[in-house]
Amino acid sequence: MERTGAENGDLVFFGADKANVVNESIGALRTKLGHDRGLASGDWRPLWVVDFPMFEQDPHTGRWVALHHPFTAPKEDQLEQLEQDPGGVESRAYDLVLNGTEVGGGSIRIHREAVQRQVFRLLKITDEEADARFGFLLNALKYGCPPHGGIAFGLDRLVMLMTGSQSIRDVMAFPKTQTASCLLTDAPSAVDEAQLHELALRIRLRA
User: If we measure between CA atoms, which residue out of 150, 144, 152, 141 comes closest to residue 118?
Assistant: First the structure.
């Protein structure tokens, strides 16, 4: 009660789990209550979300995994922390949020071979595996690559906000169902035996 400053008539919500689980669930609850209680402003209020963690630890294996993707650049002043404190390194990723809805996201990419290999090794990808899977990229970085980045915008999400729709599916011309089927084209459709034979595939039904 002392930490929250709650008084008679107040309602306190709390969660008990890993930080990312609590943050996501309480964040969703906050947004829901804001809309239900009429506290959400009708004005356009965009904001940038930055300072994302570079890595997170897999709870099952204990290995570090890339929170965004393994080609996102870490912050320049934190490169020395990559090996000693991976969990404390922040990435150069960014999201653009408008009225609680993510409408864009991207990052600055790694453009130096040594840094990319260092990140791969941290993710338990050996130099041999990296060369086999990403040799084309590492070679390009070796010969010189300028700093680069980008952002992808969700135009359909903008239209959803502009029209006051509750779901992104309301503003799509031909939305898929929740099972990813298309009512317009009846996709996915059956594949004939000749096509399966050409690709050396076969269909196995579950027992």
Answer: 141
Q: Give pLDDT, residue 63.
A: 92
Q: Which residue is listed with tokens 């979300």?
A: 49
User: Which run of H or of E encompasses 25?
Assistant: helix 19-36
65, β-bridge pairs: 56
- CATH fold group of domain 43-173: BirA Bifunctional Protein; domain 2 (3.30.930)
* β-sheet bridge partners, residue 97: 47, 102
CA distance 26 to 22: 6
In DSSP notation, 52-85 reads -BSEEE-TTT--EEESS-TTBPBPGGGTTHHHH-
Q: Tens of pLDDT along 44-54?
A: 889 999 999 99
- In angstroms, the first-to-last Cα distance of the chain is 56
What's residue 174's pLDDT?
84
Length of the chain: 207
CA 45, 165, 20, 58 torsion: positive or negative? negative
Position 79, amino acid: L
Rounded CA gap, 157 and 164, in Å? 10
Q: Where are the domains of the chain?
A: 1-40, 43-173
